[in-house]
Design goal:
It comes from Streptomyces cremeus. Helices cover about 15% and strands about 25% of the residues. The protein contains three helices and nine strands; from the N terminus they run E-H-E-E-E-E-E-H-E-E-H-E. Helix 1 runs antiparallel to helix 2. The longest helix is centred in the first third of the chain and has 10 residues.
């Protein structure tokens, strides 16, 4: 049985997405509302599993986490892309992304002050991320709140 993991995915908003738009938190919020299915590009294999949460960290202009997506399928290797050969299908959580857009988590508030690439979120950071995403635990709920029931990366909607 897989235990849901929390990950941080670093994005450089100065790079263009596959759709040609800058990868800003505004762009990702719009995707969450209109086309929530997206593919994240990975430089290396990560042991992501369906249901894992990926907190999107925007490296510039303000260093902050401002979006949440959930893994829909295990990463697949696509050898044609030398820089990002691994792709993972995800679905943006529109409600949580909207809440994080309004109240992003600043880098200064995180235990890991130097996130890079795709990393596991520190357990100490998860309650803060959940609070900003307005993912509340219900009394008696086991496991992480907001678990979906039923190197810088590049976004690819």
């Amino acid at each position: 049985m897989h235990v849901m993991q929390d990950w941080i995915y670093c994005v450089n908003p100065t790079l263009a997405s596959a759709g040609g738009e800058p990868e800003t938190k505004e762009y990702v919020r719009e995707l969450a509302a209109t086309r929530p299915e997206m593919v994240l590009c990975l430089a290396a294999r990560r042991y992501l599993e369906p249901g894992d949460r990926i907190w999107i960290y925007f490296a510039t202009p303000v260093k902050e986490i401002a979006a949440l997506t959930v893994v829909a399928a295990v990463p697949k290797e696509e050898p044609g892309d030398a820089r990002y050969p691994w792709k993972v299908s995800t679905v943006l959580n529109a409600k949580a992304t909207g809440a994080l857009y309004d109240r992003p988590v600043p880098l200064a508030a995180l235990a890991n002050q130097h996130p890079q690439g795709v990393i596991r979120a520190k357990p100490a950071d998860v309650p803060l991320l959940e609070a900003h995403a307005e993912l509340l635990r219900e009394p008696g709920q086991r496991g992480p709140a907001g678990a979906e029931r039923g190197r810088h990366g590049r976004l690819s909607p």
